[in-house]
Structure prediction request, 339 residues.
Amino acid sequence: MTGEPVWLGPVSLHLPPDVVAVRDLPELADLAPGSRDHLLSLGIDRVHRFRPAPGDGTPDGEVELATVAAADALARAGLPAAELDALVLVQGRAPRYLLSSQVTRVQERIGATRATVLSVGDLGCVSVSAALEVGVAMLRGRPAWRHVLVAMGSLAATPRRYRPPMTVLGDAGAAVLLNRSGGRYRWVDHALRTDGRYADLFRIDYRDVPADRWREVCTDEPAYSFRLALESRRRLGTLTTELLDAYGLTTGKLDGLLMQNLSRGSLAFWQEALDVRFSDVCARNLARYGHLGPIDVLANLEAAAPELPPDGHVLVMNSSPVAAWSGTLLVRDRDGDPR
Prediction:
């Protein structure tokens, strides 16, 4: 991808103060011994949980989390919200209300009165990759624009945080500012692929079902564990090779390699399947936060920044069981802060 340089970061990560150890999750009492052992072997020690403030009733937690992170990102950049040109929200997977707008609610709460707003979603974890690409394209397509904010809130959609057969969900908010003047990372290129054959592999049946009985269901575990795993290895491997070849790079020449955080086993699978080595921040964040949906890769990017050399190349891989795969190539900025 060519065009005017665009930078992103630093990333603002907002973690709710309520923390629960995985061994203390309420659903453990209802699990069969094999499922309990699997949950405890994922490499996740604890997760953060969103809890409404007293008197707030039942707020849209995804909006609350995204709003705090967005406000923090703007404060760190010293940018008034009224100067934002655009706001891109990775919409929640289970919004509090149908027909209402999450993105305009965030816009109102942070005071981004003149920003063009839109939502990106429906690709699971990879939705953040699509949102970043949209934000970069908006800046490059509008010469007068200077700042685009990408924000999101990730909230467990059901009372059970264990998502068999792969992870435990934590709650968080995240935001990152894209601009023309500087940041943690300079955007180089991006690729995203999808496959509709797995569109409803994971789903929640919610119509005529009370929210306290919602369950995330894998409709075909063999398809997820075997067919999609093989397809993902092929797709992500091809995508990565094509992306790096365009810049004369290989995974061995990268200064950093990051992936989403599902489980200890998933990180090991990807490393073996693609013959790569991920930064240790992935496993550390997995243990501390669990799986944060689209926020995983942003949290890892921020954590990896101090370990990367100036002008070092970092590749961010991402995948989703819907199924979608992406790769984002970035360069660590020498200064590291917006200018």
Remarks:
- Helices lie at 33-40, 61-77, 102-110, 127-141, 221-245, 264-274, 280-289, 296-304.
- Residues 47 and 289 are 5 Å apart (CA to CA).
- Residues 7-181 form a domain with the Peroxisomal Thiolase; Chain A, domain 1 fold (CATH 3.40.47.10).
